[in-house]
Amino acid sequence: QAWFAESGGGLVQPGGSRTLSCTSSQVVFSRTTMAWYRQVPGNERELVAHITDDDRPRYADFVKGRFSISKDNVKNTVSLQMNSLNSEDTAAYYCNYYSDIPRYLHNWGQGTQVTVSS
């Protein structure tokens, strides 16, 4: 059963920006550390960014300075603002609880596809 619903993906030109959003009716984001992950076919999901219950963000080195994660505790959403996108950012993006080993997580949503291409 999917606990998370991601949206906002699409086709983006190199150098462009995109904002992804994640919602859940089962998880209260203000009470936990939430994360964004991404996956390309043939690879495991990798951690992109996470934000703690007290709103401290952390980023993978490959997105540091380009992506920004935030939470809206009123709307119970987690967002990922992505700037300066390049082809290597092309992936399906997912949100879930934070984990160093995302393959151990469950209840994944369908994700949202981001394709960076001219």
Structural write-up:
By secondary structure, this protein is mainly β. The chain is 0% helix and 43% strand. It is built from no helices and 10 strands. The chain has strands spanning 5-7, 10-12, 18-23, 34-39, 46-51, 57-59, 67-72, 77-82, 91-97, 112-116. The strands form 2 sheets. Strands 2-10-9-4-5-6 form a 6-stranded mixed beta sheet, with no helix packed on it. It is globular.
Q: Can you tell me the overall shape?
A: globular
Helix content range of the residues, please? under 10%
Unreliable stretches (pLDDT < 50, length at least 5) are: none
| Total number of beta strands | 10
What is the subunit arrangement here?
A: single chain
What number is the mean pLDDT?
A: 96
SSE order: EEEEEEEEEE
Rg estimate, integer Å: 13 Å
Distance between the termini: 36 Å
- Classify the secondary structure makeup into a structural class: mainly beta
Provide a short characterization of the protein structure.
The protein is an all-beta fold. Helices cover 0% and strands 43% of the residues.
Key features of this structure:
single chain; 118 residues; mainly beta; 6-stranded mixed β-sheet; 4-stranded antiparallel β-sheet; 10 strands
Which helices and strands, and how do they pair?
Blueprint: E1 5-7, E2 10-12, E3 18-23, E4 34-39, E5 46-51, E6 57-59, E7 67-72, E8 77-82, E9 91-97, E10 112-116
Parallel strand pairs: 2-10
Antiparallel strand pairs: 1-3, 3-8, 4-5, 4-9, 5-6, 7-8, 9-10
